Amino acid sequence: MRRRTAVIAVSATCAFAVAANVAAFVFDVLITDAGRSDLSGFGLDAVPFLAALWSALIVGAILAIRRPEHPVGWLFLAQGTSVTLAGLLDGYGAYGAIVRDDPLPAADLAVVLGDSLFIPWFVLVALILHLTPTGQPLSMQWGRIAAATVAAGSLWFALRLVAPDAAEPPLDTVPNPLTVLPAGLDDPLRVVRYVASFLTSVGFIAAGVSLLVRFRRSTGMERRRLLWLAIVVVPLPVYIAVSFLAASGDHQLVLSIATGGIIALIPVAAGLSIAKYHLYDVDQILSRAVTYLLVSSILAITYVAVVVTVGRLIGDRGGSALPAVLGTLAAVAAALPAYRAFQDAVDRRFNRRRYDAVRMVREYVRAPTRRSVEDVLRTALAVPDLRVAYWVSDREQWVTEDGRQVETGPDEIEIHRHGAPVAQIAYDRDAIEPDIAEPDIAEAAAVEATPELVSAGLRAAISLQLAEVRESRRRIAAAQLAERRRIERDLHDGAQQRLLALALELQAAQVNGSAERLREAAATGVTELQAAVAELRELANGLHPAVLSDSGLGAALDDLASRLPLPVAVRATASRYPPQIESTAWFIACEAISNAVKHAGPAEIEVSVGAMNGTLILTVSDDGVGDADPHGAGLRGIADRAEAVGGVVTVGARPDGGTIVIGRLPCGS
Amino acid sequence: MRVVIADDSVLFREGLARLLAEADIETCAMAGDADELESVVEEHGPDVALVDIRMPPSFTHEGARAAARLRDQGNGLGILLLSQSLEGRYAARLAQDHPKGFGYLLKDHVVDVATLVDAVDRVADGGTVLDPDVVTYLLGRRTARDQVEALTAREREVLALMAEGRSNAAIGRELVLNERTVDSHISSILTKLDLLPQPDDHRRVLAVLAWLQRD
């Protein structure tokens, strides 16, 4: 069939459905106006039917236009049309045969037909379940079952049309014009009709089973498409039971919700299966729903069994609460084990991958091996590139188990414990077969692994600290090396050259031998030696000024301030601290000051030193341009030095825009 | 005798030039870096270039590389490399690569005018000069030590002077020995070190250095 023809057919069907809905509504208004609102079909109970017919029509229309050769779209259209037609015929029949004094033509026929059209719904739904999603029945055998269901449904439909009691209340007052068979056949035919109706129901359930079987056998995309339908099909028997009970007990609302519900849900599920087959949690919803259903039944049975048994045992003692209490206790006691057992059993049936993955992880948590939890999750989920990141809360960082920092994406699976993040599971979802490692399975496995993830997270935090210590040690070593090179250059270019030149000069004078030349060389020699001594002193001061060891930080800072070209206010007492702390504080002060002078262009610098509760606090603040980079080489270097003696350095901005560097060093006094 | 001096320290090269002047060696030009050295050599055609091994811009072995380039031009220029720090292996390799008219002296020893003038003369004559400290270092290496210790004290002195690049006559003068005695010491040393006698001083220096350098 060409698409053009399909579009025309679909449009015609939908146009007819709209017209039929409008017409049914008009008849309903006429009926209500005539004071027979008991015959009205448009109550609250019509809503599920409207939802059912329009969901079927819309999904059918989309499918039929997209894939005209696929029967399911047309089956949905037929299903929607049959519901529409039933509503129209019911309205026409009720108005034409009962409300009007002069009956409209064929109104009695419409009543019979309208009240029997629910049979084709069953048959159509059964066929849809058989043929989704391939358009073919699951096997020859299932094909025969489908054909038998169609045959039984047709027989049921035909017999019902000719039966004298075809119409249901309140339309049963209208005589059936099709009662053409002799009255003597009524009773045997009724038996045949019941058998046919029973067989149709069985066929209907068989269609649901066929879909579940197909679902279990399917993999990949097909499985994904079937998930939604499978969810709807699982409670099918409940729907059928409810609708039969409701029909026999004359509960119209329940009946319409039950039958309309299923007829509405199937197309919705099919539509979702077309549009949204990447929704991940369906598997889980499915298995959870089944588990809860089973657990609830077990609990109810336990409760009832205990209540009845205990009631019998203690006899009727005037409504004692004991049986109820014991029954509740028994049910409570059974709840958790039953839940676990069923979840496992259901997973094993419906969700083998999840079951296997969770079991492997559970086994590992019970008896951890030398493998890392990341490795176990990789194996369990069959994702070789799976990565686990651990949350280090005091650093607010995600790190790998060996302490490397990692960037995490937004859609990764996050595992929590006591409300705090523990770990994130990440893998490339696009590279994975959709069937494998669905996030819900990954999450279930990861949740199962939580205890191991927590301990791996602790290891990760330690690794991070170690990595930081190593990194800081490396930076200190590099800084020391650079410092040595600088000193070597200073010595080489300065004092050493000066002394060599002096030696050459003196040697030259000696070779020359004249008194004049020797006097001259001695004079030059004294000047050069003084300069060399001064250079050496400067150099030594830069390393560790003698005044620092002799008189402490305050004096050394005063000395430094006096040699800088800008005002430096020093506030420090004459207190002394351990030599290592003094020299670290000195280093921090020098670096922070030189950083400020180099980058911030301040008008003034303030340096203060004080001790409180065993911590030396050194503050260097400037009124420069601010915007200091705490990760720049200079500030990073002083942070490393501070950390090496167990202290910390913080770099902040002054309210007026300058920078403030605070070092806190443990000084033991 | 005309020399050029290349050193990035003005103080040092001025001082060196004055000392050489007192020893009647004319400094015809001075250079602060390798490029300048090459141009002054081209301009003045000196007998010897005294080159600081470490010069701008990289302060590694700029001077040594410039000297090697000048040597490769094959104009008979003698090279005396001056170094502030002892780089024994590197110096020995340089001497092995360019034994003719090549010298390596520590700046400490440059101050000794006799050593300086002797080194300049020998390099100008196409000889080899290796700083005594470099030789001491080479003799002290673990691979050489055992066999060197098997030598007599006198033989060790002779070996050191051979390694410095001195001729038999120079060794004799230095140690106040006659040449025959020096010859017999040398053949004894060569036997003990499993070295073959070499026809000339260059090859002898090369053989000794190769022996001292082996790993």
Q: What characteristics describe this protein?
A:
heterodimer, A: 669 residues, alpha+beta, five-stranded mixed beta sheet, four-stranded antiparallel beta sheet, 67% helix, elongated, B: 215 residues, alpha/beta, six-stranded parallel beta sheet, 12 helices, 58% helix, 14% strand
Largest interface by residue count?
Answer: A-B, 17 and 18 residues
Strand content of chain B: 5-15%
What form of chain B results from the Cα inertia axes?
globular
Number of strands of chain B: 6
Specify Rg of chain B, calculated over alpha carbons.
17 Å
In order across it, which strands form the biggest sheet of chain B? 2-1-3-4-5-6
Order of helices and strands of chain A: HHHHHHHHHHHHHHEEEEHHHHHEHEEHEE
End-to-end C-alpha gap of chain B: 40 Å
- Rg of chain A, rounded, reads 45 Å
Give the quaternary arrangement of the chains: heterodimer
What is the spatial order of strands in the main beta sheet of chain A? Answer: 5-6-7-9-8
> What is the number of strand segments of chain A?
9
Number of helices of chain A: 21
Helix and strand string of chain B, N-terminal first? EHEHEHEHEHHEHHHHHH
Q: Taking all residues together, what is the mean pLDDT of chain B?
A: 85
For the biggest sheet of chain B, the summary is:
6 strands, parallel
Percent in helix of chain B: 55-70%
- Please identify the structural class of chain A as seen in this structure: alpha+beta
Helix content of chain A: 55-70%
Low-confidence parts of chain B, pLDDT < 50 over ≥5 residues? none
